[in-house]
Amino acid sequence: xxxxxxxxxxxxxxxxxxxxxxxxxxFVYYRLILLVxxxxxxxxxxxxxxVVLLYYFSSELGLTTLNWLLQNFLGSIFLIxxxxxxxxxxxxxxxxxxxxxxxxxxxVHEKTLEEIVRALTAMAQxxxxxxxxxxxxxxxxxxxxxxxxxxxxVTKELLMTIFHPNTPLHDGAVIIQGDKIMAAGxxxxxxxxxxxxxxxxxxxRAAIGISEETDAVVTVVSEERGSxxxxxxxxxxxxxxxxxxxxxxxxxWAR
Length: 255
Description:
alpha+beta, elongated, 7 strands, 255 residues, YojJ-like (1, seven-stranded mixed β-sheet, 10 helices, 14% strand
């Protein structure tokens, strides 16, 4: 069998435009999958696949009533998705609009991540509350505008100074962009998730809230318990020691 006619298809008839079209579509689908990976959209996608399969089988088996119900449901599915997943859609479109579909995250050097880990560990030992938001592909400029501009290098000492209980900025969030502290004392949106345990206060609710709307890596220190948490895509990882904290932040940044 000749290779050009493999599988009964004449590969010699493929043009460079068709190849380019296939590569671009594949790349876009790949990036879109990365955007929704780990979000609430994933189980919804699985559910939609099951509904479509059920619709197909109901049509083939002649289950008229079930087929009619599924047909009407699928006819309005796009509107339902938009209503249920406004935050995820907004986050995805923001990433695409700022080049998130075609570029990698802003550069944050290992030294910066290490300074953040050292600061969080020290503040946890001292039971000093803290809330740090590390920007990835979705810009946090509008959030930073709600606080006080800093634009300083990320260091353990500066972070501990900002969150010291006697400073006017300690109750807000710090926004880190690249290797700089963009702003401090920032007000974040609170999550409305009713399933969040009552033991978590305003800092944790704010951390989850901003991570539901952006792809930022958010870290929290509880002044009541002296524990460290990381929030990614609305998911809370708690009670981290220094080693686990470093690993979780690195893995989250590499996603």
